[in-house]
Structure formats: structure tokens, C-alpha cells
Amino acid sequence: MNARRLGDLSSPESIASALVGLLAVGLIAAQALAGMGGPTTPVPSAGPSAAPSAAPTMDPEIRRALATALLVNQSLASRGAALESAISVEPPLATDIADHLRSVNADLTAGKQAADRLRLGDETADLGADLAAFYEGLMARTTETLGNSIRNTDAYVEGARAIIDLLAPLPALNDRITDALVGRSGATPSPGGSAVTTPPPTLPPATPSVPPQSSPPSAQPSGAPVSLVFNPGFEDGVNGWQLQLTDGAVATLAHEPLGGPDGSAAARVDITTGSPARSGIALVSEAFSLSRGETYVVDLWVKSSAAREVSVRLVAASGQVTASRVLQAGTTWSEISFDVTHLAADPNVQLSLDLGRSDATVWFDDIVVRKSSG
Ligand SMILES: [Ca+2]
185 CA distance to ligand 1 centroid (A)? Predict the structure, then answer.
């Protein structure tokens, strides 16, 4: 479940548990209301108890707004899944779609209030502006769609599709909200020089490849992670991976047969001429397929010759970025994992590890994308 994995990412455990509880309550409430088919009700605002205690300098109002935005976004994700179901029945019913759209609008009203609050915070102004634009874009489309005659089923189906597509940035926005809640620098673009927290490895380096308990039997070598990404551990050389360079960047991809955290093979990227853009140097996987509405875990091991950032993105074949996260890499191996829910219409994605903005050498191993075990 997404909420639990969000918790895994929050270095202070208190935030994790506070958020998980908050999300659970909010989701249950939102889903219960949606399920009853009653009047649409805004997502409840996060109460004072939602305020985690790890960032003492954060304005409590800002903290509440962040928690509310996260709740709103979780609710929007489930509305997106409901819209998806509503347009996949044959024939689709405009009245059902309209009900979901009114629920989306109620969420958006709560979201816009939270976004406006965030715009007033020094640290959260950019995030607030992006959230406001996101909510306003959605609301424009839902309002437009609801303006159609209820007999115009095609207009409702088309509107629902457009709104599902507009929801695609949700995971990336949620990452930024979570970062802001735990005071991680990833919430603001390139703070440069400010203190950053490195997510601690969740497993000792000696055992990087323990599969999740619920992993199905796999044809991969025993001990290898079950992954949708081809050749995740580089035991097959660098097959399936390519280094994409733009804007004059110069870098090479190498294979280290014994370079991994467990003594297995790893990949290394040496940068001769760096790129000012994160995506100017990118280690990109082969395309793989994700199911819409499904939650996946992205898990990888990373090390660098000097502390640096690595941006991880899931990019759809259409070019749409469906998930994005900036990770901190240090000079010892660490494991980093995060959840993404795939909301884009396009099932085909590639994982892109973006290595611009720093010339430090980077090693990778066990770059896994797998279905969340819930
Ligand atoms: Ca390996």
C-alpha cells in the first residue's frame, strides 16, 4: 500500500506512523463516502494531530496544509481509478461519470485551499504554486465536462479520459509533499550546499537482494530480485541499459563484474563532461509495461565517488514523466526505494536514472521495479 511505503521513506519514524494513520483514516472516509453514492463531500482537512514533530521550525499551518494536500491527492488517485472503471463498462453511464467528477471537484476545492496556504510558506511556495496549477487544471476540465448534457455520454467519457491523464503527475507531487513534510531538500529544486539527509539503507549491504516475502516464484536466478526491469543486477553485462547523452555531455557506461554491494556485478557511469540538466546524462532501462492504477516499488542500490544527487524518473513512451524523485547518493552503497502508482494511460515506460548536475562517478546495482506487495 502506498501509504506504508511513503512511511518507509520518512526517516523519522514518528512522521511515518502519523502519516500512515492519517492517510488510512482519510482514505477510508473518502472511500466510504464515494461508495455510498451520497452527496459529494470534501476530503476532511488534516487535524492538528496530523502535524508530525520532526521539523520543529515548520509552521503548523503549513504542515497541516501539506498533510491535507497528501490526503487530497490520495483521494484523487482513487477517484482516477473509479473513473477508469466507469469508462471501461459497456456502455459507460454518463451519470456515473458525473458523480465521480463531482467528487473530484470536491477534493479539488480542499486541495486548492491547501495549495494557497503552501504558497505563503518560504519553503513551500514553489510546491504550492505547482499544486495550485495542478488542481486548477483538473478543475477546469471537470467543470467543462460537467457542463455537457448528461445525454452526451461521449463528452463524459472523453472528459474522464482527459482527467485520468491529468492525474499522471500525482506520484511526483506526492513525493515532493512527503519530502517537504520531513524537511528533505528534495522538496525544493536544487538548494545547493544545504544540509541533506540521506535515506538510510533498509537492509544491510551484505544482503541487497532479499526478495519480498510475497514474491511469486521466478525464473530468475535464485536470490535475484523479481523485477520488471531487464537485467536489474547487471549479471548480464550492461545488456538492456543504455547511456543517453545530450547537450555535449560525455560519459561512459562500464561493467564491474565484482563491483556490487554483495560482490556481484554492478554498473558504473564515469562522467568526463557533465551536463547542467539532470536528464543530460541518463542511464535508461529497456521499456517495460505497468498496469494502470497499480502501485509499484522502485528499489535500487547506489554509490558515488562523492556525495551527489541522482534523479530517478519513470518516463512513458509518450514522453510523459509519470514519476520523479531526487535521491541522495553517498560514497558507500545505500539502498533506496519508493512507491509509484501508475496512472498514465500509456503502459510502456522506461526507468531513467538522471546523472546531470554533478560529475561524480556513480555505481548502480539491483535496479528493481516490482509490483507492490501491498
Ligand atoms: Ca549485481
Answer: 29
